[in-house]
Specification:
With 168 residues, the protein is α+β, with helices and mostly antiparallel strands. The chain has a single domain, classed as Gcn5-related N-acetyltransferase (GNAT) (Aminopeptidase, 3-Layer(aba) Sandwich). Helix content is 33%, strand content 35%. The chain has helices spanning 11-18, 21-26, 34-50, 97-111, 127-135; strands at 2-4, 54-59, 66-76, 81-88, 117-123, 139-150, 153-163. It has a seven-stranded mixed beta sheet with strand order 1-2-3-4-5-7-6, with helices on both faces. A hairpin with a 4-residue loop joins strand 3 (66-76) and strand 4 (81-88). Helix 1 crosses helix 3 (34-50). It is globular. The relative contact order is 0.14. Keywords: Transferase. It holds the Pfam family Acetyltransf_3. GO terms for molecular function: protein N-terminal-serine acetyltransferase activity; protein-N-terminal-alanine acetyltransferase activity.
Length: 168
């Protein structure tokens, strides 16, 4: 597994990922055409340029096939904080890849980029995401009630965080 920048050539993989029912269930943003997938990648690249959203493709080391996404959103460089978001394609799930990628990203964020706090939230109904958070060393901080609108209505969200001072 490697974390690398998104490339326009990843558009077909992004489009395929966004057709997955689990990704559609838990992530509001979609791409319904190759053009929209290219736009999604371009938006991720703009986020890097603005230092507001730092995105990586999670890729297979040998084949370079896209396995998922890791992102630091809501980046606040002054306070050294950001929100972690992720998804994995079906073939990459249940193999520990998401946890491994989250740990690697946090290691970079804390040791190289100087972040102090990385937080994440997920629907209380998204048990797989909760497992990733816990296995990646995130501490549960509480529940934000009815704080995210999904296709099936409002969801309570578990909030987790890691600090640079936490033992990894």
């Amino acid at each position: 597994m490697v974390l690398r920048p998104w490339r326009l050539g990843d558009a077909a993989a992004v489009l395929a990922a966004f057709t997955d029912p689990d990704i559609q269930r838990w992530h509001v943003r979609r791409a319904d055409s190759l053009e929209e997938a290219v736009e999604w990648i371009t938006d991720r690249q703009r986020g890097w340029a603005a230092e507001s959203e730092l995105n990586w493709a999670v890729a297979e080391r040998q084949s370079d096939a896209v396995l998922g996404r890791m992102s630091l959103n809501s980046v606040d460089l002054h306070d050294g904080s950001a929100g972690l978001a992720y998804w994995m394609v079906p073939a990459a799930r249940g193999r520990g890849i998401c946890t491994q990628a989250a740990r690697a990203l946090c290691r970079w964020a804390f040791e190289e980029a100087g972040f102090h706090r990385i937080w994440l939230d997920h629907s209380t109904a998204n048990h797989a995401s909760c497992r990733v958070a816990v296995k990646a060393g995130f501490i549960a901080e509480g529940v934000a009630r009815s704080s995210a609108l999904h296709a099936d209505g409002w969801h309570d969200m578990h909030v987790h965080a890691r600090l640079a001072t936490d033992v990894s």
